[in-house]
Amino acid sequence: MLYGLLNLSFWGYVFAMLLLTHITIVSVTIYLHRHQAHRALDLHSAPAHFFRFWLWLTTGMRTKAWAAIHRKHHARVETASDPHSPQVLGIKKVLWEGAELYGKEAKNQETLERYGYGTPDDWIERHLYTPHSDKGIFLMLAIDLLLFGVPGLTIWAIQMMWIPFFAAGVINGIGHYFGYRNFESQDASRNIVPWGALIGGEELHNNHHAFGTSAKFSVKWWEFDLGWGYIKLLAMLKLAKVKKLPPKLKTILDKETVDLETLRALLASRLHVMANYTKEVILPVLKETRKQHPHPHMFRNIKRLLTRADHLLDEPGKQSLFRFLEDKHHLKEVYHYREKLQLIWNRTTANQKELIDALQEWCKQAEASGVETLRRFVEKLRRYALV
């Protein structure tokens, strides 16, 4: 019994460890995150019960607590009330003490009651998973020792560290500190190195914050969301039903006026639109301005300031950007047109007609600016519609 009932080779134990931890991260991303916290998909009771049982065995986390803490994170992101923001608490604390931060917030009854709505409240939740949330991990220890013998102790220890480090530390920490951004969402979220096999697509964190209720996290053709692959498989087996995906823009070639269809497309996909504006207007004008400037070295660090959303720039950054733009007419102009476009859909009290009129006026003024890239963007914007 030294090596357990299975008596595996060294690589057999490695494979078993990777398989068991992989099932755990799949349970977190599909069941806890996309299904419970965001209601991005419906799950058949069979996989839902399996995921809940498996998480009880391998993490001891309660569905209500996890969903509540994550919803609060989205609602209070990057503020002092955010349970685990590295922008507030520091990257080292969130990366290495993420599990402790989760445990502390899980004891906050106000968080649980306010944000834990709609989570399971059946007999097994009330009598087993909630009152005995710590018993499952010891049952898992017994199973690992029985199946794998002495190596099972190492496998169990890695299982116990997997979610605290990768989910609570890496995703909540690095995912709000380092990496690339497809969208200028209202937070500091980042897409990090594609570790899909390890964290099931959760590494696409900026995409998720941009479209929080989407069941699919990948938006670029080269991004890989492993969790979405499993969801599609479950859907094929009639065990899951996807409720929402990221909005997609299309262009109608013979459409030449801003109308209600244009407005709906812009409001639903404004982060896509602003990403397109940066790529198609600001960056080409920046490149051309740099080429013509007698001191191109001045442009070394300006790209980050130009492409970052205003609300994410600190005061020194804003002042540096304003000073830089002072004598660069075209670049300053396209930057301010981006601000004006954002102001249109931030007018929450305006009705549809007022918003359409404002968009039409924005297009008219932008075309008259004389900036060719801006004119082409206006031409494309008029043709926008939702897929």
Describe this protein's structure.
- With 387 residues, the protein is mainly α.
- It has 2 domains: 10-242, no CATH class; 251-386, no CATH class.
- The chain is built from 19 helices and 4 strands.
- The protein has helices at residues 10-37, 45-58, 63-75, 86-89, 91-106, 109-115, 123-129, 135-148, 151-173, 196-199, 205-210, 226-236, 260-268, 270-292, 302-307, 315-325, 329-345, 352-367, 372-382, and strands at 41-43, 240-242, 249-251, 384-386.
- The longest helix is centred in the first third of the chain and has 28 residues, at 10-37.
- The protein is elongated, with a radius of gyration of 24 Å.
- It starts with 9 loop residues before the first helix and ends with a strand.
Give the strand order, joined by hyphens, for the main sheet: 1-2
- Span from first to last CA? 59 Å
Hey, roughly how much beta strand do the residues contain? under 5%
Unreliable residue runs:
none
How many distinct folded domains? 2
Q: Which structural class best describes the helix and strand composition? A: mainly alpha
- What is the N-to-C order of secondary-structure elements (H for helix, E for strand)? HEHHHHHHHHHHHEEHHHHHHHE
